[in-house]
């Protein structure tokens, strides 16, 4: 191991390690509570980031920097060397201050930015292609022909439209004259008169054809002169596309990931069996794969990991400064499945069975519907790997009745859930949800004091394809999402609040509460968009809908237990 690699590790004092029990198994990367050693490591790294003066990177934490604001995910990996000495490695996602080379942090799995690398050389070629495209696009003759084409195309359309309007008026006049003269003229005279009108009609059509043909000749001439320039641009774009794709594939082959057995696997092979079929952009550049790669390459044993966000919150994701987050699923999960193969890991909490002590209370029941109080920690419907749910429990208790879950609550949300006992009742109530005639109110406890009394949040949401089940705020592809809210009371440094979701998007209340453009206050216990607690403090407290059979308005209220 060279000295440069030794410099990448920060050793814990023996006095610290002897008072903290080492983890028995490695951290489950996608859902975890940071181990005490990773908290210590993260605190040291955060102190370094607060006090260092070498990095020219705008995290959005200082007003005196002009560079683009880019917050970063940082990671720490607690490791043991061959003699059992305990320390930690530090890493970051992507590039930092425009480079990969930083003395404190582990290097990337493959550094595409090294001098004279094939990546930089090919980037120069692609940049040259871009320059040639720009030359054509900025050519004076090309722009003059393009402007002439647009101007004359518009002029031709206007002239033809004017003539068509005139010809249409002529046609209406001839129609009126026919009706008038048919009763005034004899048969022979009318026949001559009709023949003259026909000649006028044919002449009008001739005028339109001449005008259209003349303009076609003019426009075709311009298009003929533009065609080779268009062809040149498309050929250069095709060359750029092919070179970019080839470079991307070459890069993917250079990214090979180690596991504890020393077995390497390329990005291409890792992602081939996934739904993506190929690596998404940025795969392999996250902190945890970099940290594990360095550990395996240098003989360190990984013990625990944690990642935290450093910087201003981005506009799309919910990311809070200094807060811990799990590894992303879309980009990291396939990679880490290979890298952590054979390493004992903590259980995935989401796959653990629900506590048998969690009971479902029936609030209302008749022969058509059930309204139950879903407890926090129980799914509404079975998951891929977990059967226990409101549905499965009702199915086992209802006699000769198939329960139909009309709507869902997140596993950690408690409160009123409507279940239909017949297909017809299910369709009827579901239609009410689709038509937004069902009224729902939630109660939540937010993690800070909200000064305003009430308001409305409008932030469009869409799924984060690379980090499911999280949602993103996206004004381009997101679905309209509206939440009305009102503060009920302040409890210490928290706020109890009522939410009325006027739309029903996945995680709508959780994102609207946590996002900086929402209330900027995650719900207490929200382990996806905030920090975990003994439960998620979100409760479906009130619901009204029309009974599918009696057509009476049903209203249910259930106070929160927090």
Can you tell me about this structure?
The structure is a single chain. This protein is an alpha+beta fold and 562 residues long. The chain folds into three domains: 3-110 and 258-349, no CATH class; 135-251; 353-557, Pseudouridine synthase. 37% of the residues lie in helices and 19% in strands. It has twelve helices and 19 strands. Strands 8, 9, 10, 11, 12, 13, 16, 17, 18 and 19 form a ten-stranded mixed beta sheet that branches. A five-stranded antiparallel beta sheet has the order 1-3-2-6-7, sandwiched between helices. 29% of the residues are buried. The model has no long low-confidence stretch (mean pLDDT 91).
Features:
Pseudouridine synthase; ten-stranded mixed β-sheet; 3 domains; 12 helices; alpha+beta; five-stranded antiparallel β-sheet; 562 residues
């Amino acid at each position: 191991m060279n000295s440069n690699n030794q410099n990448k590790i920060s050793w814990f004092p023996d006095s610290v390690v002897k008072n903290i029990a080492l983890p028995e198994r490695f951290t489950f990367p996608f859902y975890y509570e940071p181990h005490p050693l990773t908290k210590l490591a993260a605190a040291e790294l955060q102190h370094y980031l607060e006090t260092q003066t070498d990095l020219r990177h705008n995290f959005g934490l200082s007003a005196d920097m002009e560079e683009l604001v880019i917050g970063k995910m940082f990671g720490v990996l607690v490791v043991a060397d061959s003699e059992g000495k305990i320390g930690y490695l530090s890493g970051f996602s992507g590039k930092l201050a425009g480079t990969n080379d930083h003395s404190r942090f582990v290097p990337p799995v493959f550094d595409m930015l090294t001098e004279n690398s094939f990546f930089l050389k090919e980037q120069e070629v692609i940049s040259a292609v871009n320059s040639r495209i720009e030359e054509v696009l900025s050519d004076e003759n090309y722009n003059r022909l393009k402007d002439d084409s647009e101007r004359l195309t518009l002029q031709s359309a206007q002239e033809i439209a004017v003539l068509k309007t005139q010809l249409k008026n002529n046609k209406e006049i001839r129609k009126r004259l026919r009706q008038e003269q048919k009763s005034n003229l004899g048969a022979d005279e009318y026949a001559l008169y009709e023949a003259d009108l026909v000649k006028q009609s044919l002449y009008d059509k001739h005028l339109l054809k001449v005008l259209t043909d003349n303009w076609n000749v003019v426009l075709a001439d311009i298009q003929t002169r533009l065609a080779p320039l268009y062809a040149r641009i498309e050929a250069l774009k095709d060359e750029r596309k092919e070179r970019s794709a080839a470079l991307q594939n070459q890069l993917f082959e250079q990214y090979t990931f180690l596991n504890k057995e020393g077995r390497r696997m390329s990005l291409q092979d890792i992602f081939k069996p996934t739904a993506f079929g190929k690596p998404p952009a940025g795969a392999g550049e996250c902190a945890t794969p970099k940290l594990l790669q360095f550990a395996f390459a240098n003989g360190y044993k990984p013990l625990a990991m944690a990642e935290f966000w450093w910087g201003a919150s981005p506009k799309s994701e919910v990311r809070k400064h200094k807060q811990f987050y799990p590894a992303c699923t879309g980009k990291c999960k396939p990679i880490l499945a290979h890298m952590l193969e054979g390493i004992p890991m903590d259980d995935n909490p989401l796959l653990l069975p629900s506590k048998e002590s969690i009971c479902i209370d029936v609030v209302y029941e008749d022969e058509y519907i059930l309204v139950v109080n879903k407890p926090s920690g129980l799914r509404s419907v079975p998951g891929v790997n977990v059967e226990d749910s409101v549905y499965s429990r009702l199915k086992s208790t209802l006699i000769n009745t198939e329960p139909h879950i009309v709507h869902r609550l997140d596993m950690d949300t408690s409160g009123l859930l409507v279940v239909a006992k017949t297909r017809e009742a299910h369709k009827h109530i579901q239609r009410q949800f689709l038509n937004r005639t069902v009224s729902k109110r939630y109660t939540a406890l937010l993690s800070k004091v909200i000064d305003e009394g009430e308001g409305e949040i409008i932030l469009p949401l869409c799924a984060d394809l690379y980090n499911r089940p999280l949602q993103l705020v996206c004004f381009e592809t997101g679905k309209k999402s509206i939440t009305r809210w009102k503060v009920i009371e302040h409890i210490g440094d928290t706020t109890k609040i009522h939410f009325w979701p006027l739309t029903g998007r996945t995680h709508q209340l959780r994102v609207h509460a946590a996002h900086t453009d929402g209330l900027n206050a995650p719900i207490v216990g929200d382990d996806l968009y905030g920090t975990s607690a003994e439960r998620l403090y979100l409760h479906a407290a009130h619901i009204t809908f029309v009974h599918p059979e009696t057509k009476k308005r049903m209203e249910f209220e259930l106070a929160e237990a927090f």
